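call fold(seq) -> tokens
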Amino acid sequence: MLGELCFASMGVGIRLVSTELPNAMVVFGRNLVGILLLAPWLLRNGVGDLKTAVPGLHLLRATAGISAMYCFFYAIAELPLAEAMLLKLTAPLFIPLIAMLWLHERVSGLLWVALGIGFAGVILILDLAPRGAWAGVSLVSLIGLLGGVFAAVAKVTVRRLSRSEPTTRIVFYFALIAGLISALPLAWEWQTPTGTALGLLLGIGIAATLGQLALTRGLTLAPASRMGAFGYFSVIFGAGYGWLFWDEPLTLSLLMGTALIAAGGLLASRARNSEACVREPREDSRAYGRSA
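ret:
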């Protein structure tokens, strides 16, 4: 819950600084602060041998991850905060589909049901049901949903990379490539930030890093299937921040969509965990959980 509070707080910082700086500057600032915060950890643990046999996968992971960041940050700046946080959480719905097409993982009947429930929630959030046509969906909402697709691609790529790459090498190449990619738009998007904007960018990077640390710590204390439900607290915190700072109302479609996406995500998590237990020998189950 603390991790999700950090992510929602990061969203507040993004919303505030986006009134002064373009999206490209915000994404670059987030990556720069992340690199600076990660540097001591990487130097202490070492990245080992940087030589990799799968440079294309590292490039794919970084490109998908930074694309998700661009989409997510843009959605936060333009959408009600709770809705933007919820669209970010659609990534678990896309992961099984991408894993099926790319890694040839089996999708069970229960998992298909879970995905159907989750996507019904997406339809409500995008406000498709009343209009029955894509013409009723805002471009910003679609960009936020696209961010969920990119995030799912990044996570599946990490799963594929973990077969041969150590964690420090994966982290190193993501930080390096994402930093370089996010620096490119500065050639035409650079805008000298004020002291207030610099403080917000620093706060965004710190909140994101603390959120990742809290999430990682939580995953060491409880199985991922139990942790999944806590991800939706970012929507609750985002709704609270939105109401407190911007007087954003809670709509019925948002509440119903949140419930459906949460139910679909939790059911999908349980279905994947059940299949993992069947596939993996009992004595190897902990190792499988760590690699996944």
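Residues 128-136, 277-292 have pLDDT under 50 and may be disordered.
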